[in-house]
Write a structure and sequence with these properties.
- The protein contains 22 helices and 11 strands.
- With about 700 residues, the chain is α/β, with parallel strands linked by helices.
- It has a 7-stranded mixed sheet with strand order 2-3-6-1-7-8-9. Strands 4-5 form a two-stranded antiparallel ribbon.
- A hairpin with a 2-residue loop joins strand 10 and strand 11.
- InterPro entries: AB_hydrolase_fold.
Length: about 700
């Protein structure tokens, strides 16, 4: 510690706490009986402990350097950005869309022209997958409302929904309108979600740190520097909305593969398909043509494009074929989208291999425990899971609706049998993996390793040592192999999907022996759809029941809208600038020291904020900045899964800039939270030592 950085008599310490995944109250965060909001806005509140008069109260005195220092406790509550209320509860239904953005963050970013070309192609395919997921959801909803209910249920016998009046059953136009309205309403709802931002929601946006301001610095690469808003989000949002409307317009026409006899229907059909092709080309080439699209299609022109696509919906409903006549076309439309998803994923997974190999030169010298998951190929299983969950949710919703109608005679698309078989096989595989992990892998590790030296160091009682050893073994195995198990399950399902696609093309019948898989898949999909809807319902009605849902949202809504725009806004794009702004406010006082303290996911946000502060603030302010992370998944969940977000070199450099004023706390029984620049520990002479990097990337 330099003499200039030694605290004077008027020194005070501000501890700014950031909560983790599960939303907490201000009282829990600050260990206070009551808290009061001192700054912030509707989404991000800054709170302090309060006295009986609801006035801000000082925090507990800090004992340091042989004397007492006054301390101010502040907490930044950001849980309202991901949970609370009926609208945010329904965001969980967008989970497959969010996984596309997660996969975008997983892509490695190698240097050199070949790597940049491969990265651009992978990003293009990822955007195409996102667009196909949107089209699949709208089509599956159309199968339920237009085919299952309007055509088969209301157009068949009166045993299905007998309370529906006869005049509605007899009117084909009314049933057609009733079948189109639900998917159209979903399109409107998705568009409203995609335009939500903290600015539009009435929340004050954080002031951006501008170069040349009070705290300015030289531009350099920082930990978390890739976490920036997507520049093409508005264009991508328009293209997804147009695609959704075009898919709705295709529903009454019988899909893209049904030839039209009526001249008006044929014109609408051709225009619809031409626009769809243009949209997919624009999405694939968005990185190259985004600037031209923004110039040719400003905001008014984009609104006109959405309006034109919207006008095709009533035109298609007016000129469409009679209900029931286009049922085979809807089946083929669903199968066509699923086939396109398979081809897009195969292309993405294949090109990701050379991309990961190109990026390998940047991390091949790192220890194995710091290398990217699956050698940088983890984005491929993530995209596959997005496709499986997206297809499974639509099929499960249709199965649940048919069961609610108590009409087993209603026919579902033939492609849904393949989805049920796939989910049945996946359910059995997941049970086998979980059982093997719990009953074989864990006992073997406990027997081989016994009680580790670190457990003997931390616990004296033998029974406590045995219990702690079991917890440590479980956490270590989960930390080392959980992502491998998920990837293995995803690749196993990919192999099963290949077999089912071959069966579908060849026209083979499903063997009687596999009917059990079909039945199990039906149950699994029904539980998936019904369970997710129930969680959303209970989370919307009872705030306390939304904690687990909020934890899931915190993980997937961290990423900006890069591959799919129909997701909630990234809360990290607001939390990090807010923390930077608040820390700068306190650091402006020469006698104030600021400590950013974050738990779990909050530690990740505090880490990125600290990295930006070390870059934009002058050295005398950086000397008064400290960082505490507790149980943060920075290494296990982000440094390895998202190598471009938290590169090892940038993390070590951040530790050097803070000159040791960064302390990381973790529990050995925590499978996800752990070290950041250290990856191994050892007991030497009765002391616990870590193995890691120093700021100059030398081993210690």
């Amino acid at each position: 510690m330099s003499p200039r950085s030694l605290p004077g008599h008027d020194t005070r310490v501000v501890e700014l706490r950031v909560p983790g995944l599960v939303g907490v109250t201000g009282e829990q965060l600050l260990d206070s009986v009551a808290t009061v909001t001192v700054d912030g806005d509707a989404a991000g509140e800054l709170v302090r402990p309060a006295d009986r008069m609801r006035r801000p109260a000082p925090g507990p005195v800090l004992q340091a350097l042989g004397r007492s220092l006054p301390r101010t406790l502040e907490g930044y509550l950001w849980g309202k950005m991901t949970s609370g209320g009926a609208v945010k509860a329904t965001w969980a239904l967008l989970f497959p869309f969010s996984l596309a953005n997660v996969a975008h963050g997983m892509l490695p970013a190698p240097a050199g022209r070949p790597g940049r070309v491969l990265l651009g192609v992978c990003r293009a395919l990822l955007r195409v997958v996102g667009l196909l997921l949107t089209a699949l959801l709208i089509t599956q909803l159309g199968v339920i409302s237009l085919d299952l209910i309007a055509a088969q249920c209301l157009g068949g016998t009166e045993d299905c929904l007998p309370w529906v009046p006869g005049w509605l059953r007899e009117s084909e136009q009314l049933r057609m309108a009733m079948g189109i309205l639900p998917p159209l309403a979903v399109v409107v709802a998705m568009h409203r979600v995609s335009v939500v931002s903290w600015r539009h929601a009435g929340v004050r946006p954080s002031a951006a740190v501008r170069p040349g301001g009070e705290c300015s610095g030289t531009p350099r690469r920082l930990a978390g520097d890739v976490l920036r808003p997507g520049p093409n989000a508005a264009i991508l949002r328009t293209l997804h909305t147009v695609t959704s409307l075009l898919c709705v317009a295709l529903l009454p026409l019988g899909g893209p593969f049904t030839r039209q006899d009526d001249p008006l229907a044929q014109v609408v059909w051709i225009v619809d398909l031409v626009l769809l092709v243009l949209v997919f080309v624009a999405v694939a080439a968005l990185d190259d043509v985004a600037a031209d699209l923004r110039r040719v299609f400003p905001r008014p022109a984009r609104a006109v494009a959405v309006g034109v696509a919207g006008l095709l919906v009533p035109a298609a409903g007016f000129a469409g074929s009679p209900l029931g006549a286009g049922r085979a076309g809807l089946d083929s439309m669903t199968e066509g989208i699923l086939a396109a998803l398979v081809l897009a994923w195969l292309g993405f997974a294949s090109l990701l291999v050379p991309l990961a190999l190109t990026a390998r030169r940047g991390w091949k010298d790192l220890p194995h425990r710091l290398r990217p998951w699956l050698g940088g190929w983890a984005a491929a299983p993530t995209v596959l899971l997005a496709c499986l969950i997206g297809a499974g949710f639509g099929a499960g919703l249709a199965i649940s609706v048919r069961e609610l109608l108590d009409a087993s005679a209603l026919a579902l698309p033939d492609s849904y049998q393949g989805i049920t078989l796939l989910w049945g096989a996946g359910t059995i595989a997941a049970l086998v993996l979980w059982t093997g992990f719990r009953t074989i892998a864990l006992p073997l590790r406990r027997r081989r390793r016994g009680i580790p030296p670190i457990v003997r160091l931390l616990h004296d009682d033998h029974e406590d040592q045995k219990e702690a050893a079991r917890a440590w073994a479980t956490a270590i195995l989960e930390r080392k192999h959980m992502h491998r198990l998920v990837a293995a399950l995803a690749l196993f399902l990919a192999g099963i999907a290949a077999v089912l696609i071959t069966r579908r093309i060849a026209g083979w019948e499903v063997p009687v022996e596999l009917r059990l898989l079909d039945d199990l898949g039906v149950v699994a999909l029904g539980v998936l759809a019904a369970g997710l809807l129930r969680v959303v319902y209970t989370a919307a009605r009872q705030a306390g029941r939304s904690r687990h849902l909020g934890a899931l949202a915190d993980l997937v809504f961290f990423w900006p809208r890069r591959a799919h725009p129909i997701v909630p806004p990234s809360y990290a794009l607001k939390v990090v600038p807010d923390l930077v702004e608040r820390a700068q406010h306190h650091l402006a006082e020469p006698n104030t020291r600021v400590v950013l303290a974050g738990y779990s996911h909050g530690g990740l946000l505090a880490l990125i904020a600290a990295a930006r502060l070390t870059d934009v603030c002058p050295p005398d302010q950086v000397e008064r900045l400290g960082l505490i992370t507790a149980g943060t998944p920075a290494q296990w969940g982000y440094q390895r899964a998202f190598p471009s977000l938290l590169p090892t070199a940038e993390l070590a450099e951040l530790f050097g800039r803070l000159a040791g004023r960064w302390r990381g706390l973790c529990r050995g029984t925590d499978p996800f939270g752990g070290g950041v620049t250290t990856w191994r520990h050892q007991v030497v002479a009765g002391k616990l030592l870590g193995v890691g990097y120093t700021p100059d990337l030398s081993l210690i």
